[in-house]
């Protein structure tokens, strides 16, 4: 019996390898035959293509390759053609000039299992379903009006964060700022989307935050089956099994949340995102076709898209501020002028804080938390004279663009003053700086994200002076990135706070 199983497995492998080899031969032959000019790029190995050239920091490896092969580069990951875009001019061609062609996402394995078969917004392919959901999210969940209804909730959570840090300041002990900011971001996101906060006990043994994070990790982990679909069934890395298990956990949890919302009789509470979406289920008056699975997919989407992006941005900015005391002093001076030392920062102060705006732009430039924007070509297209084949994966290297030496003087230096008298903004109109993407697939949560990150950074710099523990020098801070869909710093930031307000 065991022998027979072994034989079957060997046969399966042999057939797979032969099938893959035949397919590679066919694809290579077909591309050569069409005689279309692909963008330049390094030669790849049979079957694996250029996969072995990419390590644990793909954005950095791709930047290095682009220096040699140019801003529009062709690679092959397994059997998949990949086009890497690494300059502002090239990004504009893909995200503006030909935006409609490249406004889709590739069908990744993770999106099948984790996001209800691509029924969420982040992973959905371009089409009427995505357009419908995008419209609903933009108009009903993330509009300026809707965001403003959560203003007092954000204030409550931020006051709580400041209170906890202030207690530590009295005892003169270091706090784990990264963990505190992450918990703040999780709580704010959960209250806005689900209506309440969650903690360890609410989600089995692991706890809510850790489970969402693990989902994000699995979703961004390298999966060979995404590049050689023929071996999908073998689940060589065991990822499908893990994704199915985690998806089941989430589904049970979301079902419980939906039931609680359906049964809730409290008419006076602020409507969270689930209430809004439930209002569309089965309604004749709405154009949105929302079903239970849609709501569950969108909840996970919003949690994943919002929690980590904001937390990682705040964390990188605080680290840079600690490394650059001159910038911190200047920012504190601006806060003193605009807010004064008798009170904390309010959201209404933000528009008057010009230097804060420059600090945030510089942080987004040098540490875009989504370093690679992943799109897919919906049809064959010619860009800059190069043939871009249908279904090619498009990787826009926002990280490399933010550090492009041709565009930015001293690109590796953190220097907010570079934005003095500059019109460059982060909102997707200037392709030198695209931390939120641009065009049809650009971030719909940008306004909310910007509000949260500016508010938290301003508050933590206004209320406290920060010092590293154990007389550590700021130059000793490890700036290594932890690559994923979101790219935080790999080490937690520990720092000792001192209260600086008079109130
Ligand atoms: C500092 C915070 C944030 C940053 C830096 C950020 C960045 C991004 C980026 C780079 C993209 C991909 C753009 C592309 O592929 O071209 C994206 C997409 C997305 N973001 Fe954000 N984001 C942030 C906050 C948020 C928040 C708060 C929400 C919602 C609550 C959100 C929801 C989404 C969604 C749903 C998408 C997918 C859009 C689509 O595919 O149509 N983001 N974000």
């Amino acid at each position: 019996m065991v022998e027979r199983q072994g034989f079957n497995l060997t046969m399966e492998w042999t057939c797979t390898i032969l099938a893959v080899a035949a397919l590679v031969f066919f694809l290579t032959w077909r591309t050569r035959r069409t005689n279309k000019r692909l963008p330049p790029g390094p030669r790849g190995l049979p079957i694996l293509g250029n996969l072995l050239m990419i390590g644990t920091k793909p954005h950095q490896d791709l930047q290095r390759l682009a220096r040699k092969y140019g801003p529009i580069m062709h690679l092959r990951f397994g059997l998949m053609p990949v086009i890497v875009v690494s300059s502002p001019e090239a990004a504009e061609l893909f995200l503006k000039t030909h935006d409609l062609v490249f406004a889709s996402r590739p069908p990744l394995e993770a999106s099948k299992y984790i996001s209800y078969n691509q029924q969420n917004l982040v992973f959905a392919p371009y089409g009427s379903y995505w357009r419908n959901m995008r419209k609903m999210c933009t108009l009903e969940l993330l509009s300026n009006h809707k965001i403003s209804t959560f203003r007092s909730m954000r204030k409550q959570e931020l006051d709580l964060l400041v209170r906890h840090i202030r207690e530590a300041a009295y005892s003169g002990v270091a706090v784990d700022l990264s963990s505190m900011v992450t918990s703040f971001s999780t709580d704010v996101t959960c209250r806005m989307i689900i209506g309440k906060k969650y903690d360890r006990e609410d989600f089995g043994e692991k706890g809510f935050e850790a489970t969402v994070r693990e989902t994000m990790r699995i979703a961004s982990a390298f999966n060979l089956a995404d590049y050689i679909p023929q071996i999908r069934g073998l689940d060589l890395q065991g990822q499908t099994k893990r994704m199915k298990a985690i998806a089941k956990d989430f589904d049970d949890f979301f079902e419980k949340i939906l039931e609680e919302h359906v049964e809730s009789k409290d008419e006076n509470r602020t409507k969270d995102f689930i209430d809004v979406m439930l209002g569309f289920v089965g309604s004749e008056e709405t154009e949105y076709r929302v079903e239970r699975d849609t709501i569950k997919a969108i909840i996970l989407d919003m949690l994943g898209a919002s929690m980590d992006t904001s937390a990682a941005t705040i964390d990188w900015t605080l680290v840079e501020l600690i490394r650059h005391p001159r910038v911190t002093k200047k920012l504190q001076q601006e806060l003193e002028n605009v807010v004064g030392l008798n009170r904390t920062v309010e959201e209404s102060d933000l528009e008057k804080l010009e230097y804060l705006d420059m600090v945030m732009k510089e942080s987004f430039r040098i540490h875009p938390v989504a370093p690679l924007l992943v799109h897919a070509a919906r049809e064959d297209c010619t860009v800059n004279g190069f043939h871009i084949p249908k279904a090619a994966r498009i990787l826009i290297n926002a990280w490399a663009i933010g550090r492009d030496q041709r565009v930015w003087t001293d690109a590796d230096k953190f220097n907010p003053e570079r934005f003095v008298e500059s019109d460059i903004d982060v909102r997707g109109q200037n392709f030198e700086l695209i931390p939120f993407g641009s065009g049809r697939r650009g971030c719909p949560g940008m306004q909310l994200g910007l509000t949260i990150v500016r508010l938290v950074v301003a508050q933590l710099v206004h209320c406290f002076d920060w010092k590293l523990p154990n007389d550590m020098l700021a130059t000793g801070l490890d700036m290594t990135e932890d690559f994923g869909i979101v790219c935080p710093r790999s080490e937690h930031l520990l720092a000792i706070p001192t209260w600086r307000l008079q109130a």
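Residues 358 and 418 are 8 Å apart (CA to CA). The longest strand covers residues 72-77.
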